[in-house]
Design a protein that fits this description.
The chain is mostly helical. It has twelve helices and no strands.
Protein backbone atom coordinates (compact mmCIF):
# COMPACT_ATOMS: atom_id res chain seq x y z
CA UNK A 1 0.00 0.00 0.00
CA UNK A 2 1.04 3.59 -0.55
CA UNK A 3 1.48 5.02 2.97
CA UNK A 4 0.93 8.69 2.10
CA UNK A 5 0.36 9.63 5.75
CA UNK A 6 4.10 9.71 6.24
CA UNK A 7 4.25 12.70 3.91
CA UNK A 8 5.15 15.91 5.72
CA UNK A 9 2.73 17.89 3.57
CA UNK A 10 -0.08 18.21 6.11
CA UNK A 11 -2.45 20.14 3.85
CA UNK A 12 -2.15 17.58 1.10
CA UNK A 13 -2.90 14.82 3.57
CA UNK A 14 -5.96 16.64 4.93
CA UNK A 15 -7.19 17.26 1.39
CA UNK A 16 -6.84 13.59 0.56
CA UNK A 17 -9.00 12.81 3.61
CA UNK A 18 -11.85 15.24 3.03
CA UNK A 19 -11.91 15.71 -0.75
CA UNK A 20 -14.28 12.80 -1.55
CA UNK A 21 -16.91 14.08 0.86
CA UNK A 22 -16.53 17.68 -0.34
CA UNK A 23 -16.89 16.63 -3.97
CA UNK A 24 -19.97 14.58 -3.10
CA UNK A 25 -21.58 17.54 -1.33
CA UNK A 26 -20.81 19.88 -4.23
CA UNK A 27 -22.64 17.51 -6.58
CA UNK A 28 -25.45 17.09 -4.06
CA UNK A 29 -26.11 20.82 -3.72
CA UNK A 30 -25.71 21.47 -7.44
CA UNK A 31 -28.51 18.95 -7.92
CA UNK A 32 -30.54 20.66 -5.20
CA UNK A 33 -30.01 24.06 -6.83
CA UNK A 34 -31.07 22.77 -10.25
CA UNK A 35 -34.25 21.22 -8.82
CA UNK A 36 -35.05 24.48 -7.02
CA UNK A 37 -34.52 26.42 -10.27
CA UNK A 38 -36.83 24.06 -12.18
CA UNK A 39 -39.55 24.32 -9.54
CA UNK A 40 -39.24 28.10 -9.47
CA UNK A 41 -39.36 28.33 -13.29
CA UNK A 42 -42.59 26.32 -13.27
CA UNK A 43 -44.02 28.41 -10.40
CA UNK A 44 -44.32 25.40 -8.10
CA UNK A 45 -44.80 26.72 -4.58
CA UNK A 46 -46.37 23.76 -2.79
CA UNK A 47 -45.01 20.24 -2.76
CA UNK A 48 -46.44 17.02 -1.32
CA UNK A 49 -45.21 15.90 2.09
CA UNK A 50 -42.98 13.21 0.62
CA UNK A 51 -41.21 15.63 -1.77
CA UNK A 52 -38.19 16.18 0.51
CA UNK A 53 -37.09 12.52 0.58
CA UNK A 54 -37.54 12.28 -3.20
CA UNK A 55 -35.50 15.44 -3.79
CA UNK A 56 -32.89 14.15 -1.35
CA UNK A 57 -32.63 10.88 -3.30
CA UNK A 58 -32.12 12.72 -6.60
CA UNK A 59 -29.47 14.94 -5.00
CA UNK A 60 -27.65 11.88 -3.65
CA UNK A 61 -27.40 10.55 -7.19
CA UNK A 62 -26.07 13.93 -8.35
CA UNK A 63 -23.42 13.77 -5.62
CA UNK A 64 -22.52 10.27 -6.73
CA UNK A 65 -22.10 11.43 -10.33
CA UNK A 66 -19.73 14.17 -9.20
CA UNK A 67 -17.62 11.56 -7.41
CA UNK A 68 -17.17 9.28 -10.43
CA UNK A 69 -13.55 10.43 -11.12
CA UNK A 70 -12.58 9.61 -7.52
CA UNK A 71 -14.29 6.22 -7.71
CA UNK A 72 -12.53 5.40 -10.99
CA UNK A 73 -9.21 6.26 -9.36
CA UNK A 74 -9.84 3.96 -6.38
CA UNK A 75 -10.83 1.15 -8.72
CA UNK A 76 -7.17 0.72 -9.67
CA UNK A 77 -6.04 0.13 -6.08
CA UNK A 78 -6.47 -3.16 -4.24
CA UNK A 79 -6.58 -2.80 -0.44
CA UNK A 80 -8.11 -6.21 0.17
CA UNK A 81 -6.40 -9.22 1.76
CA UNK A 82 -5.15 -11.87 -0.66
CA UNK A 83 -6.94 -14.61 1.26
CA UNK A 84 -10.63 -13.86 1.57
CA UNK A 85 -13.52 -15.88 2.80
CA UNK A 86 -12.90 -17.19 6.26
CA UNK A 87 -13.84 -14.63 8.88
CA UNK A 88 -16.77 -13.47 6.84
CA UNK A 89 -17.94 -13.84 3.20
CA UNK A 90 -16.34 -15.16 0.07
CA UNK A 91 -15.85 -18.94 -0.09
CA UNK A 92 -19.21 -19.83 -1.59
CA UNK A 93 -21.24 -17.12 -3.35
CA UNK A 94 -24.70 -18.19 -2.16
CA UNK A 95 -23.54 -19.09 1.35
CA UNK A 96 -21.65 -15.82 1.71
CA UNK A 97 -24.60 -13.67 0.71
CA UNK A 98 -26.96 -15.55 3.01
CA UNK A 99 -24.55 -14.97 5.87
CA UNK A 100 -24.14 -11.31 4.94
CA UNK A 101 -27.88 -10.67 4.74
CA UNK A 102 -28.73 -12.42 8.01
CA UNK A 103 -25.90 -10.58 9.78
CA UNK A 104 -27.16 -7.26 8.41
CA UNK A 105 -30.79 -7.91 9.41
CA UNK A 106 -29.78 -9.16 12.86
CA UNK A 107 -27.57 -6.11 13.40
CA UNK A 108 -30.16 -3.51 12.32
CA UNK A 109 -32.89 -5.15 14.43
CA UNK A 110 -30.67 -5.34 17.52
CA UNK A 111 -29.51 -1.73 17.09
CA UNK A 112 -33.09 -0.53 16.70
CA UNK A 113 -33.99 -2.44 19.87
CA UNK A 114 -31.16 -0.79 21.79
CA UNK A 115 -31.96 2.71 20.55
CA UNK A 116 -35.64 2.23 21.36
CA UNK A 117 -34.96 0.98 24.90
CA UNK A 118 -32.38 3.71 25.53
CA UNK A 119 -34.99 6.42 24.89
CA UNK A 120 -32.67 8.28 22.51
CA UNK A 121 -35.14 8.24 19.63
CA UNK A 122 -37.90 9.82 21.73
CA UNK A 123 -35.63 12.53 23.11
CA UNK A 124 -34.11 13.65 19.80
CA UNK A 125 -36.26 16.25 18.03
CA UNK A 126 -34.01 16.23 14.95
CA UNK A 127 -34.38 12.47 14.63
CA UNK A 128 -38.17 12.73 14.97
CA UNK A 129 -38.28 15.29 12.16
CA UNK A 130 -36.12 13.12 9.88
CA UNK A 131 -38.19 10.01 10.66
CA UNK A 132 -41.46 11.84 9.98
CA UNK A 133 -40.16 12.96 6.58
CA UNK A 134 -38.74 9.55 5.67
CA UNK A 135 -41.91 7.65 6.50
CA UNK A 136 -44.19 10.07 4.67
CA UNK A 137 -43.48 8.45 1.31
CA UNK A 138 -45.59 5.61 -0.18
CA UNK A 139 -44.18 2.15 0.55
CA UNK A 140 -43.14 1.44 -3.06
CA UNK A 141 -41.28 4.75 -3.23
CA UNK A 142 -39.69 4.17 0.16
CA UNK A 143 -38.30 0.83 -1.04
CA UNK A 144 -36.71 2.55 -4.05
CA UNK A 145 -35.31 5.44 -2.01
CA UNK A 146 -34.08 3.57 1.06
CA UNK A 147 -33.51 0.13 -0.41
CA UNK A 148 -31.76 1.11 -3.66
CA UNK A 149 -30.77 4.77 -4.05
CA UNK A 150 -29.51 5.51 -0.52
CA UNK A 151 -27.49 2.27 -0.13
CA UNK A 152 -25.97 2.66 -3.60
CA UNK A 153 -24.94 6.29 -3.05
CA UNK A 154 -23.77 5.91 0.55
CA UNK A 155 -21.76 2.72 0.00
CA UNK A 156 -20.04 4.10 -3.09
CA UNK A 157 -19.17 7.31 -1.23
CA UNK A 158 -18.28 6.12 2.26
CA UNK A 159 -17.04 2.58 1.67
CA UNK A 160 -15.82 2.28 -1.93
CA UNK A 161 -14.23 5.74 -2.04
CA UNK A 162 -13.55 7.08 1.47
CA UNK A 163 -12.88 3.80 3.29
CA UNK A 164 -10.69 2.45 0.49
CA UNK A 165 -8.80 5.71 0.19
CA UNK A 166 -8.16 6.03 3.93
CA UNK A 167 -7.05 2.41 4.18
CA UNK A 168 -4.77 2.76 1.18
CA UNK A 169 -3.16 5.99 2.34
CA UNK A 170 -2.70 4.98 5.97
CA UNK A 171 -1.89 1.33 5.36
CA UNK A 172 -4.23 0.43 8.24
CA UNK A 173 -7.65 -1.10 7.67
CA UNK A 174 -8.75 -0.25 11.22
CA UNK A 175 -8.01 3.42 10.65
CA UNK A 176 -9.99 3.50 7.41
CA UNK A 177 -12.87 1.63 9.04
CA UNK A 178 -13.05 3.94 12.07
CA UNK A 179 -12.71 7.28 10.25
CA UNK A 180 -15.07 6.40 7.39
CA UNK A 181 -17.66 5.15 9.91
CA UNK A 182 -17.23 8.34 11.96
CA UNK A 183 -17.78 10.49 8.87
CA UNK A 184 -20.79 8.36 7.97
CA UNK A 185 -22.22 9.01 11.45
CA UNK A 186 -21.71 12.78 11.20
CA UNK A 187 -23.26 12.76 7.72
CA UNK A 188 -26.61 11.67 9.22
CA UNK A 189 -26.82 14.79 11.37
CA UNK A 190 -28.32 13.55 14.65
CA UNK A 191 -27.20 11.47 17.62
CA UNK A 192 -29.65 8.60 17.07
CA UNK A 193 -28.79 7.96 13.43
CA UNK A 194 -25.18 8.82 14.21
CA UNK A 195 -24.71 5.92 16.66
CA UNK A 196 -26.69 3.59 14.42
CA UNK A 197 -24.75 4.61 11.29
CA UNK A 198 -21.34 4.37 12.93
CA UNK A 199 -21.85 0.74 13.95
CA UNK A 200 -23.47 -0.25 10.66
CA UNK A 201 -20.79 1.63 8.72
CA UNK A 202 -18.09 -0.37 10.49
CA UNK A 203 -19.87 -3.61 9.56
CA UNK A 204 -20.26 -2.55 5.92
CA UNK A 205 -16.59 -1.49 5.70
CA UNK A 206 -15.44 -4.83 7.10
CA UNK A 207 -17.77 -6.64 4.69
CA UNK A 208 -16.18 -4.80 1.76
CA UNK A 209 -12.66 -5.46 3.05
CA UNK A 210 -13.21 -9.20 3.55
CA UNK A 211 -15.22 -9.79 0.38
CA UNK A 212 -13.48 -7.38 -1.97
CA UNK A 213 -16.88 -6.76 -3.59
CA UNK A 214 -18.79 -3.49 -3.18
CA UNK A 215 -22.03 -5.31 -3.99
CA UNK A 216 -21.84 -7.05 -0.60
CA UNK A 217 -22.21 -3.89 1.55
CA UNK A 218 -24.65 -2.35 -0.95
CA UNK A 219 -26.84 -5.44 -0.75
CA UNK A 220 -26.59 -5.67 3.05
CA UNK A 221 -27.32 -1.96 3.42
CA UNK A 222 -30.34 -2.14 1.13
CA UNK A 223 -31.83 -5.22 2.79
CA UNK A 224 -31.30 -3.74 6.25
CA UNK A 225 -32.98 -0.47 5.26
CA UNK A 226 -35.93 -2.25 3.65
CA UNK A 227 -36.49 -4.48 6.67
CA UNK A 228 -36.56 -1.56 9.12
CA UNK A 229 -38.64 0.59 6.77
CA UNK A 230 -41.27 -2.12 6.21
CA UNK A 231 -41.33 -3.04 9.91
CA UNK A 232 -42.05 0.60 10.75
CA UNK A 233 -44.76 0.87 8.12
CA UNK A 234 -46.41 -2.53 8.76
CA UNK A 235 -47.06 -3.29 12.43
CA UNK A 236 -47.70 -7.02 11.83
CA UNK A 237 -44.29 -7.39 10.21
CA UNK A 238 -42.66 -5.50 13.07
CA UNK A 239 -44.17 -7.92 15.59
CA UNK A 240 -42.75 -10.88 13.67
CA UNK A 241 -39.24 -9.57 12.88
CA UNK A 242 -38.62 -7.99 16.29
CA UNK A 243 -39.90 -10.99 18.23
CA UNK A 244 -37.26 -12.65 20.48
CA UNK A 245 -37.91 -16.03 18.81
CA UNK A 246 -37.13 -14.54 15.38
CA UNK A 247 -33.94 -12.99 16.73
CA UNK A 248 -32.95 -16.35 18.22
CA UNK A 249 -33.46 -18.10 14.88
CA UNK A 250 -31.40 -15.43 13.12
CA UNK A 251 -28.56 -15.87 15.62
CA UNK A 252 -28.64 -19.66 15.17
CA UNK A 253 -28.63 -19.14 11.39
CA UNK A 254 -25.57 -16.87 11.62
CA UNK A 255 -23.66 -19.42 13.70
CA UNK A 256 -24.56 -22.32 11.38
CA UNK A 257 -23.70 -20.39 8.21
CA UNK A 258 -20.43 -19.18 9.72
CA UNK A 259 -19.46 -22.75 10.67
CA UNK A 260 -20.43 -23.98 7.21
CA UNK A 261 -18.30 -21.30 5.58
CA UNK A 262 -15.39 -22.12 7.92
CA UNK A 263 -15.62 -25.80 6.95
CA UNK A 264 -15.62 -24.93 3.23
CA UNK A 265 -12.67 -22.60 3.72
CA UNK A 266 -10.67 -25.29 5.53
CA UNK A 267 -11.47 -27.80 2.80
CA UNK A 268 -10.39 -25.33 0.15
CA UNK A 269 -7.10 -24.68 1.99
CA UNK A 270 -6.41 -28.42 2.21
CA UNK A 271 -6.97 -28.81 -1.53
CA UNK A 272 -4.63 -25.91 -2.28
Amino acid sequence: MNHSFTNSNLFKTIWELISPLLIYYVGYYVGYFLIAMMLSANHVTELPEYANPVIGGICMLCGLLALIPEMRQERHFDIFPKERGFGIFGVNFVLSYFLAVICAIFLVVCLNHLILFSGLSASSDSFQEVAKSQYSVPIWLGIILYGIIAPLAEEMVFRYTIFKKLTRLSGRMGYGLFVSSFLFAIYHGNIVQGIYSFLLGAFFAYALYRSGKILVPIFCHGIGNIVIYLCTMVEELYNIVFHPITLSFMWIGIVLLFLAEKKQYEQQKMQD
